[in-house]
Design a protein that fits this description.
271 residues; alpha+beta; 12 strands
Length: 271
């Protein structure tokens, strides 16, 4: 069955073929699990609205997403119990780190990535040797390739593009907002690849979301309630934004610790 595949896990395809959202590693469906968030509660969110966007809500979310490009922050993204991405991002200085973990009945895999300027390095189980980093040639990858961190698009959730695709944002409580987003209108949205988005059909154009801001007007939580896949409800994607302004420790590996990515990694990523 077709299952959602999340950003960065394309790196792991060269090592293990499995899906982490909505299915177990043996291909059987896993039950949906609820997610919780720090900060404002989003609950299940109101039903998708067909009305025009509320200008004040648009302004609040626009300011919050714009701030992600002006400061450092931490990001934790989950999709049920099988997928977790943790990242420390410093967009103004174009550097960051991310760990992507996938677990299942017979799977326990973590892919690490490191972005310094225009260079992306990864540690991929079964590909990268101990104490070394695999360097990815970004010119070898198609625009929509799932690599998590990426020069010029350092936010793995592509938050600004994602929320910018909504045309019906409205207030849903104190510092809480809701609406729908169009997953087909931007690339690398919330870690979902084009194959998964295409599988949603027309539903991909109106995916319900809820978002919460902290008391300084900064994004604290974003939840996407993905369409059902072949009649089975997909796990929601939840992103938590914390650690605004905290230093991000990310340094280029020593030259002796860098190995160029082998051909099978580019093949797995569609390059």
């Amino acid at each position: 069955m077709r299952t959602p595949r999340l950003a960065g896990l394309g790196l792991a395809v060269a090592t293990a073929a499995f899906a982490v959202a909505g299915c177990s590693t043996d291909g059987t469906a896993e039950p949906a699990t609820s997610t919780s968030a720090a900060g404002p509660s989003t609950g299940t969110g109101p039903a998708p609205s067909s009305s025009a966007a509320d200008p004040e809500a648009v302004k609040a979310l626009s300011n919050a997403t714009a701030a992600l490009g002006t400061t450092s922050f931490k990001l934790t993204t989950t999709a049920g119990a099988g997928f977790k991405l943790t990242a420390a991002i410093d967009a103004p200085n174009s550097k960051g780190t991310a760990d992507i973990s996938a677990t299942g009945a017979n799977t326990d895999l973590t892919v690490k990535s490191l972005l310094i300027g225009q260079d992306l390095y990864a540690q991929i189980p079964g590909i990268t040797k101990d104490a070394t980093w695999t360097h990815l040639d970004m010119s070898r990858l198609p625009d929509g390739a799932n690599v998590g961190l990426r020069p010029g698009r350092i936010d793995p959730v592509a938050t600004a593009d994602l929320l910018g695709s909504s045309t019906d944002v409205h207030a849903a409580g104190v510092r809480e907002y809701a609406g729908t987003v169009d997953l087909t209108s931007v690339t690398n949205v919330a870690g979902l690849d084009s194959v998964t988005i295409d599988g949603y059909g027309p539903a991909a154009q109106r995916v319900p979301f809820t978002a919460g801001l902290d008391d300084q007007g900064r994004l604290s939580v974003l939840t996407l309630r993905l369409p059902a896949v072949e009649g089975r409800q997909a796990e929601p994607i939840e992103a938590l934004y914390t650690g605004y302004g905290d230093p991000v420790t990310a340094e280029r590996p020593a030259a002796s610790a860098i190995v160029e990515a082998p051909e099978n990694v580019y093949t797995a990523l569609g390059g």
